[in-house]
Amino acid sequence: MRKPETRSRPLAKRLRKNMTKAEVILWLHLRRNKSGWLFRRQHAIGPYVPDFVCIRQRIVVEVDGGTHWSAREIAHDRRRDEYLKGFGWRVVRVLNTDVYKNIEAVLAAIFSIPPLSAAADAASDTSPVTTGEDKTASHR
């Protein structure tokens, strides 16, 4: 487990078991989308646990309810957004009420985000398989 995620991963597991009604509704649509984008729910990224994440497209979707309107929560959301954007994530915030009353507009907003190019997608891959030295080339 990566060090920044030692506390956020157990939290993510708890959050997956206790999703809000709005999160459940949006999850039902995101997991069956026809765009080919695969979403994860309550996925740890560093010290934070966004509601939904599409790793390949570097998209974070946050569902904001009543708890997100205090000055303290607004400041926390800003810090989280800055942290995520600093690592190349594109953050989309939607309101609970929009999920309940206008799910089609919420989905349109999410899927209107331009897809990452293949070059940007490859550059964001940090696996040693794709970024490491090609050992077979040096043995020819």
What does this 3D model show about the protein?
- By secondary structure, this protein is an alpha+beta fold.
- The protein has one domain: VSR Endonuclease (Endonuclease, Chain A, 3-Layer(aba) Sandwich), CATH 3.40.960.
- It is 47% helix and 12% strand.
- The chain contains eight helices and four strands; from the N terminus they run H-H-E-E-E-H-E-H-H-H-H-H.
- The protein has a four-stranded mixed β-sheet with strand order 1-2-3-4, with helices on both faces.
- The longest helix has 16 residues, at 71-86.
- It is globular.
- It starts with 7 loop residues before the first helix and ends with a helix.
- Residues 125-140 have low confidence and may be disordered.
Number of domains: 1
Classified by CATH, the class is Alpha Beta
Report the average pLDDT across residues.
79
Provide the low-confidence segments as ranges: 125-140
* CATH architecture label: 3-Layer(aba) Sandwich
How far apart, in Å, are the first and last alpha carbons? Answer: 36 Å
How many strand segments? 4
Classify the fold: give the CATH topology. Answer: Endonuclease, Chain A
Q: Please provide the ordered H/E string of secondary-structure elements.
A: HHEEEHEHHHHH
Question: Which outline best applies?
Answer: globular
Annotated CATH homologous superfamily:
VSR Endonuclease
